[in-house]
Structure formats: structure tokens, C-alpha cells
Amino acid sequence: MTQEANKVIVHIFGEQHAIKGKGSEDYIRSLAYDVDRRMKEVSLKYPLLAAHQVAVLVSLNMADEIAKLKEEQKTVLDMLGEKTEL
Length: 86
Known about the structure:
It is found in: Cytoplasm. Homodimer. Interacts with FtsZ. The chain is α+β, with helices and mostly antiparallel strands. It has one domain (6-85). 65% of the residues lie in helices and 16% in strands. It has helices at 25-45, 51-85; strands at residues 6-12, 15-21. It has a two-stranded antiparallel ribbon with strand order 1-2. A hairpin with a 2-residue loop joins strand 1 and strand 2. Helix 1 (25-45) crosses helix 2 (51-85). The protein is flat and about 55 Å long.
């Protein structure tokens, strides 16, 4: 049985967004809160940036985090694979 998509109203960087996703409402809200927090942090550091520029920087930072986590995961899986071969 597949989970139905939930529609949740969230506020990110002063704008209201209707988000539809398969996660729980709390999960979607927590993701939106994280994005909002990150955008506010970048905006405080670089107050002259427009909202879309802040969003691009936050997106790049998050993409970098994901890439690093994927690399860490690959390293751990490789290490586990080596141990099972011994």
C-alpha cells in the first residue's frame, strides 16, 4: 500500500508555500523549517542578496552536504564489504 501525499502549508523566508509530499505533515514542516532557518542565516551573513540568490546559496550548500554524505556512506559500505570478505 502506498502512502498518500499530504498537502501542508509552510512558511519559508516570509513566503507561504503549499507543499505536497508523501512524508508526514510534521516531517514536511521540519524540512521547511530547516530551509527557512538556513535562508535566514545566509541572509543575515549577506544582507544585500535577493531572496532568489539566498535560495541558490542554500541549495548549493545543501547539495554539497548531500554529496559529502553520499561519499561517507560509500566509504562505510566499502569498509563493511571488505570486512565481510575476510
